[in-house]
Amino acid sequence: MAEVVVRDLVKVYGKSLAVRGIDLDVPDGSFVVLVGPSGCGKSTTLRMIAGLESISHGELRIGGKLANHLPSRDRGVAMVFQTYALYPHLTVRDNLSFSLKLSKVQANDIEHRIAGAIQALELEPYRDRRPSELSGGQRQRVAMGRAIVREPDVFLFDEPLSNLDAKLRNQMRVEIKRLQHRLGVTTIYVTHDQVEAMTLADIIVVMKDGEIAQKGTPLEVFENPASKFVAGFIGTPQMNLFDGVLESDGAGLSVVSDAMRIAVPQSRFATGLVAGRKVIAGLRAEDIVPLGHGLHPADAASIEAQVMLSEFLGNETLLFAQLSGAQFVARMQQPRWIEDGETMRFHINSDRLHLFDAETERSLRE
């Protein structure tokens, strides 16, 4: 196991900056997930750590050792790719042993490592099959096994579940997390899927345009998004965002938009908020509560809006509603059939309000 430390890491392609001087500490034994939209630099960062891309500027240390110019094979890392990268003519067992034989590992040690990986990943029934005879989930487990047998200091995963269907993704997420807990190996995982990031990570790193937009535990990032971008990217469905302005109502400040007026809980935000300031108000779907479908504060704001579309998900229903031209999503925890066009009353949980500066888009939380 090893700590990974990145300082001022930069990657330049021609005149284009793909990674813009990021700093990152990956503690020994932790599970860190890099998440962000396509083109944000997360895979490029991972490939620089793996040694598959050169580092244009900055410093990379693995286990305290400077690794900028170390060959990939000498960095103590093992990478699992999106495409599995298995040898099609080799059996599961031979795929697992191939890199070990190249490294001239002793035969009895090879057998011991393979047996451990096959047992950990429940691959015993498939050890003599070729990749074409395996399902997508089984192939991904073999790819993970090939990384495990190398006994690396660091696991690197590059969107390993993106080729799987939804059910298999859910299963493999659980398997990957359970395996990492059992082995205790430092892990860096790249994905564009924020659900994967939230469920897997000890530390989540949200990236945008080659930079780190925010890093912290999944709960910290969800509860306290540092910017409008993070607020809109993390959470399903994404946070409702409304352009507004702060107004004084005698008792305090309220944020007023075309859709609603919401009291601002002063204890939640930085001092210095003044009337007239342009802001972006944010509310998650679970904080816009249909009347009769959940608890709400006694002083909650109340609005009437027309439901344009509903999505029944079994244990809940998402309501896509419109008010004064503004659209929002509400979550109904006690589902019932909703007709398109039905008018409903909603309560607003202002205690969960988020505010962002309209110009910088940075959070105004203390």
Describe the structure.
- With 366 residues, the chain is of the alpha+beta class.
- It contains eight helices and 20 strands.
- The strands form four sheets. The chain has a six-stranded mixed sheet with strand order 6-7-8-3-9-10, with helices on both faces. Strands 13-12-11-14-20 form a five-stranded antiparallel sheet.
- A hairpin with a 2-residue loop joins strand 9 and strand 10.
- Helix 2 (92-102) crosses helix 3 and helix 2 (92-102) runs parallel beside helix 4.
- It is globular and about 80 Å long.
Set down the secondary structure blueprint.
Elements: E1 4-13, E2 16-26, E3 31-35, H1 42-50, E4 57-62, E5 65-66, E6 77-80, H2 92-102, H3 107-120, H4 136-148, E7 154-158, H5 166-183, E8 186-191, H6 194-200, E9 203-208, E10 211-216, H7 218-223, H8 228-233, E11 240-248, E12 253-256, E13 261-263, E14 278-283, E15 288-290, E16 301-312, E17 317-323, E18 326-332, E19 343-348, E20 354-357
Helix pairs in contact: 2-3, 2-4, 3-4
Strand order of the largest sheet: 6-7-8-3-9-10
- The average pLDDT is 90
Q: N- to C-terminal separation?
A: 37 Å
Helix/strand order: EEEHEEEHHHEHEHEEHHEEEEEEEEEE
Percentage of residues assigned to helices? 10-25%
Low-confidence stretches: none
- What is the multimeric organization of the chains shown? single chain
Describe the global form.
globular
Strand proportion: 25-35%
Q: Structural class of the secondary elements?
A: alpha+beta
Q: With helices defined by DSSP (H or I, 4 residues minimum), what is the helix count?
A: 8
Rg, nearest Å: 24 Å
Work out the number of β strands: 20
- Major pleated sheet: 6 strands, mixed
